[in-house]
Design a protein that fits this description.
The protein has a seven-stranded mixed beta sheet, with helices on both faces. Strands 11-12-14 form a three-stranded antiparallel beta sheet, covered by helices on one side. The chain has a two-stranded parallel sheet with strand order 1-13. About 45% of the residues are buried. It is globular. The chain is built from nine helices and 14 strands. It starts with a strand and ends with a helix. Helix 2 (about 45-60) packs across helix 6 (about 235-250), helix 3 runs parallel beside helix 4 and helix 7 (about 255-275) packs parallel to helix 9 (about 340-355). Helix 4 (about 100-105) links the parallel strand 3 and strand 4 (about 110-120). The protein is about 35% helix and about 15% strand. The longest helix is centred in the C-terminal third of the chain and has 22 residues, at about 255-275. The protein has helices at about 15-25, 45-60, 75-85, 100-105, 220-225, 235-250, 255-275, 305-315, 340-355; strands at about 5, 65-70, 90-95, 110-120, 140-145, 145, 150, 165, 180-185, 200-205, 280, 290-295, 315, 330. The protein is α/β, with parallel strands linked by helices.
């Protein structure tokens, strides 16, 4: 039976990415060798790195003065690398979920952290709106998509200071104004590649302004200077990332991804709002188009396990909600086809008809 993959991360990748990655594991760049067994210094892999950087710049409209890096350590290491490199005295953060909280925790090791807004008191079910970004902070950090709670910020803030953004789970799903940011980062395993590589977009001018010593591996300048090859990079995830980037370009770029993502999310939210058995968990205006969280309506709470089993039997995979929200979460990343959303909606309708 065809599986519909709604996992939150690692998660669905385009069939093109999977096929091309499999091919390269067997025979990379007509070398008659696996990509797993050739040097990252080979000219064939250098070409992969160069094209991945160039395509990222093209797809995201990244201007001169910014560098694209492919690093190890996940988005979680960026929670520490960002303040290590950019926080001199004070930084402003908003706390919109678990990942934002983790970023705040690390930043506190490096200076004053002004948490200017938080939705923690209501289990992060909305994005705070009325906050003022201080002008005397070094940067303002936010998480654009809260993967666990299903809220999303899809518009660049008007910020008086440079911004830093964790875009792990919605990068390549909208166009944004790179010039408003000092740093944008994301673990690749949601909209780009298998786990193991982190994409970092960093502004050259933002660096070299902190007074502390930075260990070599944690200094962005090291990786800029060495073209993300100071140490051995995660070659296979980078190769897969390149395949996804090629696929994005061929499909019509980020604008087209956004159009599809909005359409897919609307199909599912419409059904959640219509179906008497279910309800959404977050403020409507903050609903994520990447991670759709929903629960049983209170009158039907006892059907949760039954629906889970029914949906699983029908080929739905990965829809169990995160333990901090409960219920269900369907992740609709770029690679997820509309047919999968329609299949989930059909299952929800069929289940409703039985009750
Ligand atoms: C998954 C995720 C992370 C963690 O990424 P790792 O690569 O596992 O460290 C951080 N932020 C957001 C928004 C995420 O979705």
């Amino acid at each position: 039976m065809k599986k519909h993959n709604f996992y939150a991360g690692p998660c669905i990748l385009s069939p093109y990415t999977i096929q091309k990655t499999a091919d390269a594991v067997l025979n990379f760049a007509d070398m008659d060798l696996s990509i797993l067994e050739v040097s990252h210094r080979s000219k064939q892999f250098q070409a992969v790195m160069d094209e991945a950087v160039a395509l990222t710049k093209e797809l995201l409209n990244i201007p001169e003065g910014y560098h694209v890096l492919f690093l190890g350590g996940g988005a979680s290491l960026q929670f520490c690398m960002v303040p290590f490199n950019l926080l001199n005295k004070k930084a402003a953060y908003i706390n919109t979920g678990t990942w934002a909280g983790n970023a705040i925790k690390e930043a506190k090791l490096f200076g004053e952290v002004d948490v200017i807004a938080s939705s923690e008191a209501s289990n992060f079910n909305y994005i705070p709106k009325d906050f003022v970004i201080p002008t005397d902070a070094d940067y303002f950090h936010y998480t654009s998509n809260n993967t666990i709670y299903g809220t999303e910020i899809r518009k660049d803030f008007d910020s008086p200071i440079p911004m830093v953004c964790d875009m792990s789970s919605d990068i390549f799903s909208r166009e944004f104004d790179v010039t408003k940011y000092e740093c944008i980062y994301g673990g690749a395993q949601k909209n780009l590649a298998p786990a193991g590589v982190t994409i970092v977009i960093i502004k050259e001018d933002a660096l070299g302004k902190v007074s502390r010593q930075i260990p070599t591996m944690l200094d962005y300048r090291t990786h800029i200077k060495k073209g993300s090859m100071f140490n051995t990079p995660p070659v296979l995830p980078i190769y897969s990332a390149l395949m996804t980037l090629r696929w994005y370009k061929e499909q019509g770029g980020v604008k087209e991804m956004e159009r599809r993502d909005i359409e897919k999310a609307a199909i599912l939210y419409d059904e959640i709002d219509r179906n008497k058995l279910f309800r959404g968990t977050v403020a409507e205006e903050d609903r994520s188009i990447m991670n759709v969280c929903f629960v049983m309506n209170p009158d039907y709470a006892e059907l949760e396990k039954d629906f889970m089993e029914f949906a699983t039997m029908k080929g739905m995979v990965g829809i169990k909600g995160h333990r901090s929200v409960g219920g269900f979460r369907a992740s609709l990343y770029n690679a997820l086809p509309k047919e999968s959303v329609e299949a989930l909606v059909a299952v929800m309708k069929e289940f409703e008809a039985k009750h």
